[in-house]
Amino acid sequence: MSDERSWDARYAESERVWSGEPNVVLVREVDGLTPGTALDLGCGEGADAVWLATQGWTVTAADISGVAIGKAREHAEAAGVKVDFQRHDLARTFPEGSFDLVSAQFLYSYGDFPREHVLRLAAAAVTPGGVLLIEGHQDHGPYAHDGDGHPPVRFASPDEVIEELQLEPGGWAVLTNAVHDRIQTGPDGEPAHRTDSTIKLRRRTVNSGGD
To answer: Dihedral of the CA atoms 33, 181, 155, 128 (nearest 10)?
Structure first.
């Protein structure tokens, strides 16, 4: 089964796969940024994109699943905001343009998803002075799927992710590089500990010389 069909099937399993609330780290790390243009990669059912739009951002949001995009558009309509939702298999196509904020929240997929390449494209899409925000897992946690026919996903450390971005020397300021714990509700409804990571980078403007 293709990645597109796999994700469509997952999003069709229930009315809502995710909570409908924006990622906590996104809310925390975006606080204080001046709203501009934003790109949400792997937007799913649209909670992050809709929240950004309610905060005054002009948002483009991409996902591989047409089922997810349909739900995201309904979410945006219900919230009374406009979001440019685009269907992309990021392994093959990427949204056009440059953005003041590029957010990749738990951007993983099945099979041989080229996450490192996609994150490099994400970095290239950040405007000078803009921010790249990457949230990732450090463990498989309560949502690990056994026997689903897919190989286990590799969870790179923040330092590994930054190295794999292949950023131009001196061109970026590291604002956040952290591993942190959080509580997540597992499939059985019980709370479980997870370990995640946050990377927040600002692209320096020409001759800025500082953070």
So the answer is: 10
pLDDT digits (tens, 9 = 90+) for 44-59: 999 999 999 999 999 9
Residue with tokens 């979001």: 83
Residue 107 is classified by DSSP as: -
pTM (predicted TM-score): 0.85
Q: Is 152 exposed, middle or buried (0-12, 13-18, 19+ CB in 10 A)?
A: exposed
Percent of residues in the chain assigned helix, strand, coil, to nearest 5 = 30, 30, 45
Half-sphere CA count of 72, side-chain side, radius 13 A = 32
Which parts of 31-169 fold into alpha helices (H)? 47-54, 66-79, 115-124, 158-165
User: Which residue is listed with tokens 């406009």?
Assistant: 82
> pLDDT tier at 63 (50, 70, 90 boundaries)?
very high
